[in-house]
């Protein structure tokens, strides 16, 4: 099936029709109800089909609402009468939707059937700029087709795309590169705060979807340029202030018998298979992205990396950072064992043990063989933030694991943490002691006491925003954080606490100043 066509006049008509139709995230939830809408988000259609049938039963069968027609057609893969789609899209009409490549028709009569040939769904997100509300076209998914995905399948905005959009720093900037744009979702987010966006992909089909989505959702004059090519090749020799990428990082067997088995059983999916062994693609991207970063420029990527026997992941991935010569902050968010990893990605393409037992078994075994060949014990997933220093040496090398919940959008928190790191890097302990700091508004204090005790055994400073960190604090540190309201300098507060706790001021400063640095870095305290 061909991707949609970007006819500017028709796309503008479609945009106006969609605005008027109530076919947005909130409108779909009002139609289906929160339970059915949430189930549909989990790729479970039955509750939504029941809710839609109930909604249609409450209105004359010949007059479904526009949102009911569009949800049944594009979200649930149903067949609708031509007259119903003409009413739902009065400016575009069924004929215009067919010319755009969105639907196929059985005839020209009012009661003739119309079916969707692409997935066109409302999208809503909150990033560091604010609320975003669009419509995104992509290939029909397994929920509609009932089978495995084609190898050139173009995904819509899934969980990984949403995560990347929310963790990206969104300060106003010049040039942004969206590497591996897919349907174009990261480019759309970037277009809200950048002067110029370049989006690349190895898939011409993906670029066609991205062009359609850009035309449907961006204002006239937005500088969004699409380029075909692999990884960084289309932008060689250029510099960007921000690079974002959800690259094809999936660790897929490619060599030897294991590679042949997976290729025969599943094929290579363009959206996720970069054609490299193990986690080489992520490593090479970390090592190479600095070539296209302007001084002070930032790259934010999703990726995964192998945990190999006898080698901590922090050492292995940390060596990539060292070789890259960039500031680096890597947060590992999830860890899967080899079997879980194989199951996840075989199932991701629409292959199931029930539908295709032979293909499932062949791919599963090949994945396990491939991991065993490199002594892989687990695979970590996470967020990668890299920066080219404005000048001077690298100052940031941070690798950590945080598998708990986070407060999205995380992009503003990451920006504050990076700014805090830079502020600290320019100040020695004397300058820090002279600073007047303020405790962030989201910080709370938890105290744990033995019943009957006058003083707490444990004090936890808890962050409500960002990564939601909890820091166990000594009584002096908790008191210092409580006193940081911008009136007194850190040194003055330390001096007062030394008198209160009856300890030498220099000793207390030696204890507290390193802790204050960590709290500034993590957003508990700010200037």
UniProtKB/TrEMBL annotation:
Alphabetized InterPro entries for the sequence: DNA_methylase_N6_adenine_CS (IPR002052), DUF7059 (IPR055487), DUF7782 (IPR056684), Euk-Arch_PrmC-MTase (IPR052190), PqqD_sf (IPR041881), SAM-dependent_MTases_sf (IPR029063), Small_mtfrase_dom (IPR007848)
One Gene Ontology term of the molecular function aspect: methyltransferase activity
GO biological process: methylation
Annotated ranges, domain DUF7059: 20-110
Domain Methyltransferase small: 162-251
UniProt domain DUF7782: residue ranges: 421-526
PROSITE patterns recorded: N6_MTASE
Highest rank taxon of the organism: Bacteria
Keywords tagged on the record: Methyltransferase, S-adenosyl-L-methionine, Transferase
Family named by the database record: Belongs to the eukaryotic/archaeal PrmC-related family.
Protein name (Swiss-Prot/TrEMBL): Methyltransferase
């Amino acid at each position: 099936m061909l991707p949609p066509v970007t006819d500017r006049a028709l796309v503008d008509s479609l945009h106006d029709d969609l605005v008027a139709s109530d076919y947005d995230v909130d409108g779909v939830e009002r139609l289906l109800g929160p339970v059915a809408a949430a189930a549909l988000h989990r790729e479970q259609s039955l509750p939504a089909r029941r809710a839609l049938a109930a909604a249609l039963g409450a209105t004359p069968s010949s007059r479904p609402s526009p949102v009911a027609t569009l949800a049944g057609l594009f979200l649930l893969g149903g067949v609708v009468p031509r007259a119903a789609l003409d009413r739902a899209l009065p400016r575009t009409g069924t004929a215009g939707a067919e010319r755009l490549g969105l639907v196929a028709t059985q005839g020209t009569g009012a009661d003739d059937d119309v079916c969707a040939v692409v997935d066109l769904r409302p999208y809503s997100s909150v990033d560091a700029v604010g609320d975003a509300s669009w419509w995104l076209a992509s290939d029909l998914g397994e929920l509609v087709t009932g089978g495995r995905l084609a190898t050139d399948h173009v995904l819509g905005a899934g969980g990984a795309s949403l995560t990347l959009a929310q963790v990206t720093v969104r300060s106003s900037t010049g040039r942004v590169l969206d590497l591996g744009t897919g349907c174009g979702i990261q480019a759309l987010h970037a277009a809200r705060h950048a002067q110029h966006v370049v989006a690349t992909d190895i898939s011409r089909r993906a670029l066609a979807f991205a062009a359609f989505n850009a035309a449907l959702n961006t204002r006239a004059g937005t500088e969004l340029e699409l380029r075909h090519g692999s990884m960084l090749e289309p932008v060689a020799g250029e510099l960007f202030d921000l690079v974002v990428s959800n690259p094809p990082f999936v660790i897929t067997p490619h060599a030897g018998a294991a590679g042949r088995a997976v290729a025969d059983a599943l094929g290579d999916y363009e959206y996720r298979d970069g054609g490299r062994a193990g986690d080489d693609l992520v490593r090479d991207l970390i090592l190479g992205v600095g070539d296209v970063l302007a001084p002070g420029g930032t790259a934010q990527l999703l990726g995964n990396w192998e945990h190999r026997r006898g080698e901590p992941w922090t050492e292995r991935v940390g060596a990539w950072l060292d070789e890259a010569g960039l500031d680096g902050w890597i947060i590992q968010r999830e860890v899967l064992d080899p079997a879980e990893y194989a199951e996840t990605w075989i199932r991701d393409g629409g292959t199931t043990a029930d539908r295709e037992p032979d293909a499932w078994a062949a791919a599963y075994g090949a994945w396990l063989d491939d991991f065993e060949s490199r002594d892989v014990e687990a695979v970590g997933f996470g967020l990668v933030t890299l920066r080219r220093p404005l000048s001077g040496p690298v100052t940031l090398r941070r690798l950590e694991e945080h598998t708990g919940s986070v407060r999205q959008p995380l992009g503003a928190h990451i920006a504050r943490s990076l700014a805090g790191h830079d502020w600290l890097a320019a100040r020695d302990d004397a300058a820090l002691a002279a600073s007047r700091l303020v405790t962030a508004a989201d910080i709370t204090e938890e105290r744990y006491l033995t019943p009957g005790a006058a003083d707490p055994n444990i004090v936890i400073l808890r962050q409500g925003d960002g990564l939601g960190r909890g820091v166990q604090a000594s009584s002096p540190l908790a008191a210092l954080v409580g006193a940081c309201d911008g009136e007194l300098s850190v040194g003055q507060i330390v001096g007062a606490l030394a008198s209160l706790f009856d300890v030498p001021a220099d000793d207390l400063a030696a204890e507290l100043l390193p802790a204050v640095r960590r709290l500034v870095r993590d957003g508990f305290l700010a200037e």
